[in-house]
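Worked example

This section walks through a single chain of length 75. The input is the sequence exactly as stored; nothing has been trimmed or padded.
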Amino acid sequence: MIPSLFDLDLDQLRERLGQLEEWGRALESGDEELVENLRAEVFGLGGTEEDDWNDYHRVRNEFDRRASEEFDLGQ
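Given that input, the structure is written out below as tokens.
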């Protein structure tokens, strides 16, 4: 089952964001072998690109929002 972004803590969001950033770099590199190796790791839970869990911008937005909240609470 694909997790909801709202059920994840900040560290889990950070980890997912890192995976999606690595995926983007692999795609840009044009290295087909690297892309295929990462595909199972990054998209192992399945779903589609429209799922929040698989969408870089949605994960980034939620991470930024949560990090901002934590920073504000720490002030």
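What to look for: The two ends are 36 Å apart (CA to CA).
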